[in-house]
Amino acid sequence: MRRPALYSSSSRPSQDQTPKPPDHGVPAAQALAPPAPRFFSASNPRLLWLAVLVLAVLLLISLSLSLRPTQRRLTQADINAAVLKTLETVQLPSAESKAYEVIRPSVVRVMGYGKGKDGAEDVEMGVGTGVVIVDKGIILTNLHVVQGAQTIKVVFSDGLESTADITGTQPENDLAVLQAHKIPDDMIAATMRSTGDLAPGDHVLAVGYPFGIGPSASAGVISGLKRTFRSPDGGQAIKNLIQFDAAANPGNSGGPLVTMDGEVVGIVTAIFNPNQQRSFVGIAFAVPIENAASAIGMHPF
Q1: Which label site among 89, 248, 263, 284 has the fewest CB atoms less than 10 Å from its CB?
Q2: CATH top class, domain 103-180
């Protein structure tokens, strides 16, 4: 019996046979699948415009990068010009103001009291200045500020007031050492500096309570070294003094003379008065800090 052919050679199937798809080695499902869509054909304008937009953005980015100027490397001249511009437009604190801020927490007002004529009331005998040199409340001042006082009071930079005792003196340099009974919790002692490298012309700052006003600062220079000063009454002469021209007046006695770093190089002790007005005429003297520190048995250098 003859076996029927799988595919007929005729385009029309015979009446007793079911039409079958041609077999060319392709699965039937694939052969019957519709053709893949053409994304950029005129039948899909939305995708076409999207492609145009993407190309336009890429073109703009490319143009922007090509037109961007090449970054120039900074030169020393550029840096110098920027620094100069900053100095011209920004107000920097002066060396004097920085020195004042360093020493200010260590400066104290010193007041001596005695009995009045009625013997009952404490009377202020004088006002001077002191400087804390040990954070336990040890203060250097002038002997003539506290000499003869029955009660001594000191006022610290934060306003704390305390009584104090004299714990040592050095009459040959008009110095006294005080110990405060109370001190601030954040007490800051001054930094002392050797006078070995001081020279005439060096800038200094005198800080104290002239006429009880202060703390006040006055600036000047070292005028000379190893000077001798004799008190107006012709008494004892004090030797090896620093002469300076920063304004000092009654009340500055015992205060610190400091460098532009805020470090103490001397204790202000006297002003030169060719007249009897007790006013500053441009010549003042300070005891070198080496001598002052030795008054409490310490030599810091």
Answers
A1: 89
A2: mainly beta
pLDDT tens digits for range 225-242: 999 988 766 667 899 999
How far lies 35's CA from each of 13, 31, 210, 241, in Å?
A: 27, 10, 105, 111
Query: Is 2.40.10.10 the CATH number for 203-294?
Result: yes
The pTM is what?
0.70
User: Domain locations in the chain?
Assistant: 103-180, 203-294
Q: What is the mean pLDDT of residues 156-165?
A: 96
The C-alpha atoms of residue 203 and residue 263 are separated, in whole angstroms, by 12
Q: Report the half-sphere exposure of 58 (CA within 13 A, side-chain side).
A: 6
Residues 6+ apart with CB under 8 A from 252: 128, 129, 206, 208, 209, 210, 268, 271, 284
Same CATH fold assignment for domains 103-180 and 203-294: yes
The two tokens of residue 286 are: 């300070």
pLDDT class of 195 with cuts at 50, 70, 90: very high
Catalytically annotated residues: 144, 174, 253
